[in-house]
Structure prediction request, 115 residues.
Amino acid sequence: MSTDCLFCKIVVGEVPGDVVVESDRSLAFRDIDPQAPTHVLVVPRDHHRNLAAVAVDDPAAATDLLQTVAKVAEQEGLAEDGYRVVANTGEHGQQSVDHVHLHVIGGRQLQWPPG
Ligand code: AMP
Prediction:
């Protein structure tokens, strides 16, 4: 755990999270500022700064992250109509929390391209 990391604190329950799916390696909880009817964040329980880091350092955790995205989509009723998975990365990607997280966004027609 990284002591000053918001998502590490949600993983251990120090900060409340509206959890929708859990696995041994991952946690999925609702975004506090939803951009669509369904907006869930999926994070590995262990701290990795971005998708590249978790893929290289712990491939099993990266796989579990994607399997948890699939569970969220099923459980939230997004799988049939579709949804978007976003990993904002670094400064240009406007990543604001330095603990890798996949945004699962759906429940309405989404537009492309993003800004
Ligand atoms: P990003 O900007 O891609 O790093 O995404 C960070 C996301 O975390 C944003 O969509 C925020 O709304 C969300 N967020 C910030 N604080 C919390 C919190 N306490 N619980 C749930 N989501 C949060």
About this structure: The first helix runs from residue 6 to 12. The chain has a mean pLDDT of 97. Residues 6, 15, 17, 31-33, 41, 88, 94-97 surround adenosine monophosphate (CB under 6 Å). The beta strands are 19-22, 26-30, 38-44, 83-86, 102-106.
